[in-house]
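hi!! sorry for the late reply, been swamped w classes. u asked for the two structures so here they r. pasted raw, havent cleaned anything up. first the sequence of the first protein and right below it the tokens
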Amino acid sequence: MTFWQAFKATYSGSVAVLIACPLLALVPVVFELLQHAVEVHIGMYDSIATAKATEHHPLRMAFGMLKVAALTIPFYWVTRFQPDRDATFAARPDPKAIRLFAVYCMFQLGLAALQLFGLPQTGAVLAVSFVVGMIVGNLLLAWGVAAALGNATVGPRRSIAIMARHVPWTFAFSIAVILPLVIPHYAAAALAIAGPKVLLWPVLIADSLLVGWLTAAMAAGGYYAAVRAASKAGVDLMPGNVRRADLSDGMIAAAH
């Protein structure tokens, strides 16, 4: 699968899951709105000066951690939707998959908590932690995808073995996936701070909806990157006891 095929499959898959599972798609939207409500409450959008002064406000940071959880958990159903674009399979509370994914999710949340609360919030440190976090996330993608699908045969070690040689590709692909949505996300934040206050809540609501799409795109991109790497290693991320799909053919079909 080429870079462009994976990119198109990611965006078609992200839109498809938003349409097929609208209530699940609202989970990150709601938590993004809650964080925006907190930001309005602490005066973050009053001016550029107050935005800088309240950037690391304890209440905002606490709700930011809740938002991170709301961005991580959808990886479960977005991943499960991708192989066959099956909303029923995506939303099914598979006990084994939930147990496996909970471990992966807790690791991701622990890493996020370290970045938010355990490291100095300076520009250089944030830049390094972003790059390191991306690399670690890339290495563990196969674990996360396998866990969400209910496959216990791929854990952290095997995931690293599968993904290691593909980190440069996956890193570049991950950036390419998020940029089309991250750019308007930050533009919305700038408009909320510097724009007319009558537009504040319309902008924040639109931004929250955008974050819902961004969440789906990141998860779908992770799925296609992991399956691409796994297929090259001869590893099937779909467990044998689940209705099988030809993932490689499915990815190529989704890209057209």
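now the second protein. again sequence first, tokens right under
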Amino acid sequence: MEIENLLKMMVEKKGTDLHLKAGLPPMVRINGEIDPLIDTEKLSSENIKQLLSKYIGFGEDKKLHDNKEFDFACELPGIARFRGALFFQKGNYGAVFRTIPAKIPTIDELNLPQVLKEIISSEMGLVLVTGPTGSGKSTTMAAMINHLNESFKENIITIEDPIEFVHADKKSIVNQREIGMDTNTFATALKSALRQDPDVILVGEMRDSETISTALTAAETGHLVISTLHTNDTKQTIDRIIDTFTPEQQLQIRFQLSLFLKAVIAQRLVKRKDGKGMVAAIEIMVNTPFIKALIAESKTGQISKAIEDSSSFYKTQSFNQSLFTLYKNGTISIDDALATSNNPSDLKIQIQSLDFAKKQEGQNEPKTNRNF
């Protein structure tokens, strides 16, 4: 059994993640659920070490033992790239490989809202793509960078850990820098990027106050900055950023966010009703004048309603609006819609109203007269 064969099998089965754990056979996540990839004997820690031997040279093995975990990217040419995470659990080797499609999907192919193209066509500002682990943030950001690369003549710098999607130069120049190989930290790479004539900077993750502060400065000085946070919605994203700073710094950061935050795209994956994979429910916040005031005045609890109220003019949408549309179109079930919602009671009322209207419409349809 070779790791390449397991990865190929995962791709063929349309799996997203391969799990290697001592005491279990190779496991794969498909449509959000984990099952055995193949009917085989349980893996031992030594089996896993042998499977991973090509990725654990002397340097990597030292890093793994020193840090107890190690992230990297690898590729099966013509099939897919993978993001690997090696770690220890109960003293045994463990690993997870996530599939990264060989072809970078477009915004249209991902069925993402068209307003995303307008948002990233801005010359400056901070755009955040957020969501829990496994919600497709990296894929969405890759599609956004791909759109810019195909549409504009710019200098795009990405700072990633590790590099996942590989961008070829098209209309733009794309410089991709990997933490550990090309630079030491997100913060130092971001500061350095400001001296490299950037138009667009992608920061793989804003992990600390220094990175966030530098990203805001970059947005303030005329650059488009795209980054990500592991937060569930716009309110939580803004609160998380502000809470990263000391109380003495928070007023200034809140003011900067109100001015230079361009948009927040928060997403969660929901099971499709037909069983054919997952679909993204997406909240889109565009920083309207009213929302700017809410951020500045520390009224983030009102942002969700503001998003809904501005949907027709600014093309924004709340999670409930996105989930309602997916349910209305027959894409997801009511149970999954309600389970995903931040405010299931309001969503349930909307769905019940829709179902009642459909029922009434069916009852009011004229009956066909068969007596001609």
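hope this helps!! also noticed smth abt the second:
The two ends are 72 Å apart (CA to CA).
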